[in-house]
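To close the chapter, one final illustration. This time we ask the reader to focus less on the individual chains and more on the assembly as a whole: which components sit near each other, and how the overall shape emerges from the parts.
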Amino acid sequence: MADNYTFKKSMALFDRAAKVMPGGIYGHESPAILVPGRYPYYVAKAQGSHFWDVDGNKYIDWMCAYGPILLGYGNQEIEKAVQKQRKKAICTSMPADMMVDLAEAMVETVDGMDWAVFAKNGNDATTWAIRVAREHTGRKKILKAKGGYHGVHAWCSAHGGVIDEDHAHIHNFEFNDVESIKYYIDKYPGQIAGIISSPYHHPTFADSQDPHPAFWSRVRDLCDKEGIILIVDDVRAGFRLNIHGSHAHYGFTPDLVCFSKALGHGYPISSCTGREFLRPAAGNVFFTGSFWYNADAYAAALAGLEIMKRDNSIEYMNKIGNMLKDGLYKAAADWGLKIRMSGPPSIPYMIFDNENDFRRMQLFCGECSEHGVFLHPHHNWFVSTAHTEEDVAYTLDVAHQAFKVVKDTFGG
Amino acid sequence: MADNYTFKKSMALFDRAAKVMPGGIYGHESPAILVPGRYPYYVAKAQGSHFWDVDGNKYIDWMCAYGPILLGYGNQEIEKAVQKQRKKAICTSMPADMMVDLAEAMVETVDGMDWAVFAKNGNDATTWAIRVAREHTGRKKILKAKGGYHGVHAWCSAHGGVIDEDHAHIHNFEFNDVESIKYYIDKYPGQIAGIISSPYHHPTFADSQDPHPAFWSRVRDLCDKEGIILIVDDVRAGFRLNIHGSHAHYGFTPDLVCFSKALGHGYPISSCTGREFLRPAAGNVFFTGSFWYNADAYAAALAGLEIMKRDNSIEYMNKIGNMLKDGLYKAAADWGLKIRMSGPPSIPYMIFDNENDFRRMQLFCGECSEHGVFLHPHHNWFVSTAHTEEDVAYTLDVAHQAFKVVKDTFGG
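The assembled structure is written out below.
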């Protein structure tokens, strides 16, 4: 088992960073909200299921860059496809022809969708989607699931510099509670433009929730009845539940579906796909950015769709994810600890049953980190096809020891 | 001179695209708003100052992908730096160490700025900047120059799905008119959080305007007096006027400066740099995205800063831009046509003096396109260091003939 991990170079680099960047590292990769002092800070190299930090420490990476890496770091087929396109053109004054190929592939791949547009960030797509809903309906109000994450734009974020007007027509329903949606429909009759939600609920700092069996069909019925646009934010879960979109996994058809992360296999791309009746509204909401036509990301996405279909990636990730989940339950139980694992096998979320402040999770993840396993204390993890049964076995060995430390420290 | 350009494959591909994308091509690269039928639609290859469309037509490209390409397509030094980093890591679970190097380089390069953050789109940076201004001041209102472009987000766009609340606290002053700024300061005392503007005014569909000699110093004084955050959107002009930021060219120091486009040389990146006193507010406004820590773009940006400094790229682009400008004036005059060229030499904007509907510009650009010169009918153009004196000479030959067609068609 890997041991003697130190973070001297990480810390020195972070000290430099703190001088020239607010907080040293900002955003979701900020160590201040993770496991300070026992965690990798900067990546020097990544390959397959592993990365190495600047101190030379090696980790099995169960975060996969927070989702984009579904086929492993440096996947040779993806790199080859990107390299081929790079020799032709990347960022150009008109789009590369491959944009059309990719749009066709998206329409063919994603259940029930008739067109696609591409951007860079997941948030580009989710924000544009609510504007398409507003454009089509002429209504203002958007319902989102409480705790749901759709990006950092002011309408879906509460973190700094937000003004009342940003949230004036955003209302939070409870995921899985159709009555909480009806409440707003009754309160604001004819005023709801759209409902946006992830396909299953994956709030940060809390258990993931599968949709109840009838939830989505009831929401779909409500939207049809009330003329509300149903938007699925599949940025996080897309291509890890069902290659045809997570809505196919749960058996319903939204009006707009947003993708990013695993669509590009590390290359920046997002997409919004939509149904035919929304094409005019979609054409009316101006959507553009300097790098949105970059062909390297199109090449990666196109190759990725083919590889994921050919290899049945989801079946494999489910197998690995289930091995990890079952093993963690068992390893915790060996020390009399109770944990909860929620979410799909390919996107697991773990927490201690008696945890309410994440101190156990931070200790657990710190122990794992110092022995070569990278896990996140309060965000779901991600499985890739590069993770092997040996990676799971190694992870479980490390986790077993880490659970012991949690037991010794907290007593249970 | 190149001739016999046809667009058969372009049209066939566009027909396919129209089935699977709203409008076939959306956003700023939509041919519907450019020169339909006589214009390249899709890029097959790009190298140096040229690109080839899917019909095999070759063009001298004076748009440079709308700005990002400052060192030419496929610049070997940039590609080498990117390739080196790609072999290590691109998109990872923690940032690459190169993020720190780039932040240090930005702080060293950009006049008066103490920290930097990175994102993907220019609009990521401009929207975040106004939130930092709101966070710091606790005020709501933002003044922007009328006609100024800061991206497609609802606060700075009027194109589809925008609701009143998006613009409730956004007010438009007239660029170069300090009184129009004072008007809002008097009307909303103590309520203005920030003023955002490009360093010189480059509205689409209109002449560029240099700032009057005293404009920025007077705006700076007003901001200091009123506690207003001064934000420069240098996304379009950055690194084409002054390597230290366009504010250095005009001799003033803003509080926040946003970059993108030429920062990444085709690789997706944007940045907001800021002054020390804004560091706490910057740390409070959560800013993140799946691909914001991608190291290939950091590598491109870092290499690019070094190359641009070493080669004094701006001096060369000014020379080429001035040759182009002088030559176009002369070529138009040969047919008795009057044109206006505005903006800096490296970012020229051309229009016919007696034009009010862009039909002359569309004809002119269509003629140029069919003879191998790619120009835009209503958006400024961009010069790169890959453009040669031969490119200018060729362009002027083509333009000369195109002016004749304008003369023959419109009589003047």
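Chain A has twelve helices and 13 strands. The radius of gyration of chain A is 22 Å. With these observations in hand, you are ready for the problems at the end of the chapter.
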